[in-house]
Amino acid sequence: MRAALDAELNGLIANLARMVRLASSMINDASIALHQGDLALAERVIAQRDDIQAILDGIEQRCVTVLALQAPVARDLRVVVAALHAVDHVNRMATLARHIAIITRLGRPHAMNSGKVRPLLARMSLLVSQLAEDAAAAIEYQDPLCCHRLAVADGEVDALHRRLTGILFAQDWSHGVKEAVNTALIGRYYERFADHAVAIARQVYYLTTGRVPEFIAVKATSAASCRS
Q: pLDDT tens digit string along 66-121?
């Protein structure tokens, strides 16, 4: 019984890490499609969303089965609880990547041509993709310190988002209201993607220590009303 439970929990952890990496790949591909106007790549990201949903549904069902049949306790129970929360965050990350791909599908011209906007969005895209990769590694190695490192990178994403908003509301913005709205949405999607990656790191911290890091819990609470 113990060996079977260990195998099931290890499988959950491995599959979650794989799904977080897939979300990282999706946001990276969506960003490439956005910057290059690659409509075919955008369509692949959009289609991939349904694939990841099916896999996540399977992971969630496995968690329910473990709870019903294995009666996990203590740390084993924390693994299942953390996995259920992480599934929700990965699901939202995949949705955010799809949102960016959908904006790309609307076609050009768009505000990515703006010299002020392009480098900010490019930097945000790199940061959020790496955040997801780091969150996946944290799951694999069950690293409780990862949440602090991810929170630092998330702070840079937030700062870039504030700079982006300032550009869009400046008087010299010359790309029109529609493009300002689309660009604001893209920036918001990146910001929320980063928040979900940090939230996954919080679950790793909880899994390994039984506690929630206080400074990250504060941000999670303040963002609860703005979920994707």
A: 888 777 788 888 889 999 999 999 999 999 999 999 998 887 655 565 678 889 99
pTM of the predicted model, to two decimals? 0.88
Determine the Cα–Cα distance for residues 174 and 168; give it in Å rounded to an integer.
9
Of 75-79, 115-119, 193-197, 221-225, give the lowest mean pLDDT range.
Answer: 221-225
Segment 183-207 shows an average pLDDT of 93
Q: What is the CATH number of the domain that holds 104?
A: 1.20.58.220
Residue 155 has pLDDT above 70, yes or no: yes
| Residue 86 contacts residue 200 (beta carbons within 8 Å) | yes
Number of domains in the chain: 1
Q: Are 128 and 157 in contact (CB under 8 A)?
A: yes
Domain holding 19, by residue range, is: 2-226
96 to each of 28, 64, 178, 218, how far by Cα in Å? Answer: 12, 26, 19, 23
The answer to whether residues 45 and 30 touch, using CB atoms and an 8 Å cutoff, is yes
